[in-house]
Amino acid sequence: QVQVEESGGGLVQAGGSLRLSCAASGGNFNGNAMGWYRQAPEKQLELVAAVTSGGRTTYGDSVDDRFTISRDFAKNAIYLQMNSLKSEDTAVYYCAVLRPGESDYWGQGTQVTVSS
Fold it and tell me: DSSP of 35-101, one letter per residue?
């Protein structure tokens, strides 16, 4: 059974940093892209960052160079380093294993709250 689990969310003051982790189990996902998405209250789900099986990274339009995605293929894991956090970064952050043409695998999400 495939499981995707996020960790590392929490409450942080504006200007602070957080590092999110995501571990996928129940399969080998080295051939899949993996990514971080977020959903703020009353807003649509949006891409934060993704990394392909070849290590290429993509960032969403609303994300600037404050965020960095990385991947550990040996651990089926990805990470999101978030620096200089702003109140508008407050959202539930989801990790996904991306499977074109099939249903993606999603985690339950981790809450990130940035206080101003």
Answer: EEEEE-TTS--EEEEEE-TT--EEE-TT--TTEEEEEEGGGTEEEEEE-S--GGG-EEEEEEEE-TT
